[in-house]
Amino acid sequence: MGAIAILGTLIMVVALLQAACVPVMAEKTCHANSENSDNCCNTNSCHKTDCSPAVTKKTAAILTVNNFSPGGDGGAPSECDGKFHKDTERVAALSTGWYNKGSRCGKTIHIHGNGRRTTARVVDECDSRNGCDSDHAGQPPCPNNIVDVSDAVWKALGVSKNDDSYGFMDVTWHD
């Protein structure tokens, strides 16, 4: 094989590799990161990011509980609609990368956990970049793999407030 043929083949291989590496979605993706402690606000050591793991048909996440009502631990009104929401509504906040600049606002996500499945409407961002202030109820930035949901979602998954996994449970989710 001549040098020109090898060069042509190499150029084709590089072009194919570049095409294969083009992201399918405009979302940035990275590995799960759950390293913020409750004390990171006091020590100014909170991890901040704007990416989340890639969304698949079985995206691994940590399900947490949020009170989206006035005075609840969500802080300010929901980002998507500027409103507060009752604990009886199946609503969710997604980590910054999954929230993807609001592209999932108002959309239904499917959550699988505790041997059950349910849905929730995305109404907010679980901010992975900012925290420790009144808009975030004094809480540190969210890890990048959080689906933060109302009590109604936990009930739909069959997890009561008395259950040990209530408030922090491994789940999978998808659009």
From TrEMBL:
Primary localisation category: secreted
InterPro entries linked: Kiwellin-like, RlpA-like_sf
Signal peptide: 1-26
Domain of life: Eukaryota
Keywords: Secreted, Signal
Compartment list: Secreted
Cellular compartments per GO CC: extracellular region
Entries under PANTHER family matching the protein: RIPENING-RELATED PROTEIN 1, RIPENING-RELATED PROTEIN 2-RELATED
Family in the record: Belongs to the kiwellin family.
Protein name: Uncharacterized protein
Organism: Adiantum capillus-veneris
